Amino acid sequence: MIFLRKNKKLKRKSDFLEAEEILFNKEALAKVSDFEEVQRLEISVGRWGLDLLSFFGILFFVFALGLVLFLNTVFGNELKLSAQHNAIATIPIIADRGLIFDRFDKSLVYNHEVFDLVFFPNYLPIEKDKREEVLNKIYQNPEIKSLFSEENLIEDLNFLEPVVLKSNLTREEAIQFESYFAGYPAVQVVRQNLRQYQSSVAFSHVFGYTGRVSKEDIEKNPNYQNFSKIGKNGLEAFYEDYLRGQDGEIKILRNAAMEILGQSIDKEPQRGNNLKLTIDAELQEYSYNRLAKQIKNMGKERGGAVLVTNPQTGEILTLVSYPGYDINLFSKGIDPKEFASLTNSPAKPLFNRVLSGLYNPGSTIKPIMAIAALQEKIIDPFEKIETHGYITIPNPYFPDKPSIFVDWRNNGYVDMQDAIARSSNVYFYIIGGGYEKYQGLGIQRIKEYLEKFNFNQITGIDLPGEKIGNIPDEKSKKPWRIGDTYNVSIGQGDLTTTPIRLINSLNALVNGGKILKPYIVSAIFDNNQRIIFENHPEVVKENFLDPENLKIVKEGMRKTVTSPLGTAYMLNDLPFSVGGKSGSAQTAGNTKINALFFAFAPVENPKISLLVLIEDVPEGSLNAIPVAKDILLWYYKNRGL
Fold first, then answer.
1. In angstroms, rounded to a whole number, what is the distance separating the alpha carbons of residues 233 and 211?
2. CA-to-CA dists, residue 118 to 194, 214, 269, 417, angstroms
3. What is the rounded average pLDDT of the residues 351-366?
4. How many domains does the chain have?
């Protein structure tokens, strides 16, 4: 109780407000004589203060109410889904990849069921002791311990991405691991597809292979997960979106403590779509084996290629790049030592020579030079020109040292068709670069015609990795000399192209002047046999060549086989008409020779054309022609012409 004296001021030791003073009010103070001294216990803020406090209170209430309404109306569904996402975890059910069939519906690829043991770090319990229990359970398993050190496992977990603990499990192994990790939902057995290929070596550069996704793959497509398998090369990569299918889902319901309340299949997987190819599987296998036999008989491992097409449609019947490699090894997960052996091999088995190999076309380019000369009226095709084995160009700097450009043999007097059949270098030197009274095309017009035949473009075949060759001109080399033009005229020098581009352009000479887009997949259909995509012949360019000129050049290629002096006269005994053009291209500073041969049959209305390439041969095109002959004969006996 506070004692107050009348007319005497209250003395205080400090400004501290005593507890009992809190209860003072105006009625109590009215009875106190020293009112003015005690008045300091209550300060009136006035009406404006109360209004200000009321304003801020109402403003805060309105803001809070508006925020609640805004979040519910604008972001309500998103926040609801986010909350459900935190409560529901998903485990994928990997869909089967689509199958691949050849043109006769022969199955070439199938899926073998295997399993992956996958750890999902973001599904770990929240409690530290339970998390450690799961990690200890993983690391204590001897099969996993042999693959992961504890430090590496923890390092992988820092990314909170799924980690494949063990792959390619059999069904029995999967059951054992499911039993071992029962009650630990962060570790799941995920069904996978082990892709298995028929004739895996012969088809290696057609199919490509599947493999585990890389970080770069995930960056390009966030839908991929660490344990996803995708197409890495060939058709598997090019048609990945069709083949992949749609994964299913197992949903796991969790509480706030990340404890599992239950799980169920939420979405069934849908198998990918199937590919039907233009490839003839038996012809592909025969071509690969015949090329391999020819190369082995030559006594040294070297590269090669075989392409067989339908020149009227652009369909690819055979695509062989030799040597191939076992793509089933990549599907399983190739051993690092085996991979190193493939990458370090001088034969380069991983290299697709058909699409990515850049080669001098050699004399196979001569029919294109011939029709360019006809189109430009450079020469009468039936005029005989003397070719005595070489031509001589005066040297203005050293008159006693003229430049000599040799032929591979003395072909005597030849017209255009003879020159094609006998592969006369001198004749094409003359119509290409000019000589004496003959003007010649010149390098600029040569370049223009090579571009008309699309040598400066990819073909657009439905496989990844296609490259573009090189068309030289006066800008690419200074000084540009007449000899450089001569070299380009016979497919040498800096002129390069790919086998797929070469056969595609040469086909225009035998199909009536049409450049077609080549393709390997004829149709894509779903599991109900409904066609969802279909390829049709696509004309890229036509009507750029005179039909009469085409007949002259085509007959010259026919004489390559029928003339006793033709470079492919050994094909003359085949029971059907054949035309062709041989080529021997010097490489590596004229120290090596690549053999090439282009053929088509029957001549009147070609159903197939083929190109054979063998690298680093001792006797030029003579090494490629027997391979072409046997392939043509096999096709005649088994498919008919």
1. 9
2. 16, 16, 18, 68
3. 97
4. 2
Report strand pairing: 260-267 vs 100-101.
Answer: unpaired
**Residue 521, beta-bridge partner list:** 277
Please state, in angstroms and rounded to a whole number, the distance separating the CA atoms of residues 405 and 352.
34
The answer as to whether 599 is a domain residue is yes
- 521-525 and 274-277 as β-strands: parallel, antiparallel, unpaired? antiparallel
* Residue 410, beta-bridge partner list: none
Q: What spatial distance separates the first Cα and last Cα of the chain, rounded to whole Å?
A: 126
Kind and range of the H or E element at 386? strand 385-387
36 token code pair: 């003015």
260 and 292 share a domain? Answer: no
Read off the pTM.
Answer: 0.82
What's the domain range around 125?
88-273
Q: From CA 421, how far away is CA 415, in angstroms rounded?
A: 10
Q: What is the CATH classification number for the domain harbouring 427? A: 3.40.710.10
- Token pair recorded at residue 5: 């004296």
**Distance of alpha carbon 259 from the chain centroid:** 42
Q: Within this chain, do residues 334 and 363 fall inside the same structural domain, yes or no?
A: yes
pLDDT digits (tens, 9 = 90+) for 48-105: 666 777 777 787 777 777 767 766 666 556 555 444 445 556 777 888 899 999 999 9
DSSP secondary structure string, 413-459?
EE-HHHHHHHT-HHHHHHHHH-BTTB---HHHHHHHHHHHTTTTS--
CA distance 485 to 440: 10
CATH of the domain at 263: 3.90.1310.10
- Cβ-in-10-Å burial (0-12, 13-18, 19+) of 152 comes to exposed
Q: Which two tokens stand for residue 371?
A: 């029709």
